[in-house]
Amino acid sequence: MKTDNTKSPIELIYHLYDLKLKETFKIAHDERTVQPTVILEIRYHQYIGFGEAVATKYYQVSQTSICNNIEKALPLLQNWRGEKPDLLFDQLLSITQDTFATCAIDQALWDIYAQLQNKPLYQLWSDVNTALPISNYTIGLDSIPTMKRKLEEFPWPIYKIKLGTEHDLQIISALREVSDVPFRVDANQAWSVQETIDNSSLLKKLGVEFIEQPLGKKNWKGMKTLKGKCALPIIADESCIREQDIDQCMTVFDGVNIKLTKCGGISAALRMIKKAKQYSLLTMLGCMTESSVGITHIAHLCKLVDFVDMDGALLISNDPAIGISWDGYKVRFQNKNGSGISLKS
């Protein structure tokens, strides 16, 4: 599907996909085998940029709503002439009222902007020689034998383990039987205050680096209680969606997990990373179950943060895009300006 616009150098093309998970992916409040997504292709003269936004019931976002809200921004985009995309961000978000749609637009514009500057995207904000943090690989909730199998079948230097059951410590203890690499755990809002305090001490002994979003996203009182009582750092996820959330997170969390799709794209993420660092918070870039379009944009940013979770495309069997490649656990960028993303024919 594309927008035909003969009066402007901007053309929008929508690619809708159902990304198929290699295995059922389960967390504390959801499970899925298919992830719908929208890949936006923006053509500007001879340049092509790509962005992505996944659909999710949890945030009440569909492929249709994403496309419709992107279309609302077309009049503004028709006047774009290659300026830095962050100058357009606030207007875009005001028009779309949708961070997911805005993310797809913002990513595609940054892709084109970097090409106009004759640079790979990451060179716009980070030193060429700066090392990338290693992404974790996620093990979704399942039976303990299945989780052990998944871990053994995919050797990796860091794992994120999804938790949120009545036997979470048993899960980590069992996984420790087959791996001695660092773990990170994500409770997806499933724990109580006391559970978090008690679990943190035991998890630290089991080689866990940090805990992600143990309490409900609006349980600020509970998070305040946790501050200083946990043996491990606590990272905000669902509690930290947009830039303004960092002001509240800084008082009760040790760090924030920033997801481009949720916050509105690269422009918003750059602001959030800067603000989080001003507050001396740990910084992390996270992902949804995305194709190599969304994951590649995360990779171009990840030199700026402490931790990264960008394994989304590794979890799917029908990735429609070409972007970063993996040399074992190491990321390789395409030798191109911009994002280096293309769609498979």
UniProtKB/TrEMBL annotation:
It is an enzyme of class 5 (isomerase). Its cofactor is Mg(2+). Its EC number is 5.1.1.-. Residues 144-233 form the Mandelate racemase/muconate lactonizing enzyme C-terminal domain. It comes from the Bacteria. Pfam families: MR_MLE_C (PF13378), MR_MLE_N (PF02746). InterPro entries: DgoD-like, Dipeptide_epimerase, Enolase-like_C_sf, Enolase-like_N, Enolase_C-like, Mandelate_racemase_C, Mandelate_racemase_N_dom. Binds 1 Mg(2+) ion per subunit. Signal peptide: none annotated. GO terms for molecular function: magnesium ion binding; racemase and epimerase activity, acting on amino acids and derivatives. The active site is at K162, K259. Mg(2+) binds at D186, E212, D237. Keywords: Isomerase, Magnesium, Metal-binding. Transmembrane segments: none annotated. PANTHER family: D-GALACTONATE DEHYDRATASE-RELATED, ENOLASE SUPERFAMILY MEMBER DDB_G0284701. Belongs to the mandelate racemase/muconate lactonizing enzyme family. This is Dipeptide epimerase. The lineage of its organism: Bacteria, Pseudomonadati, Bacteroidota, Cytophagia, Cytophagales.
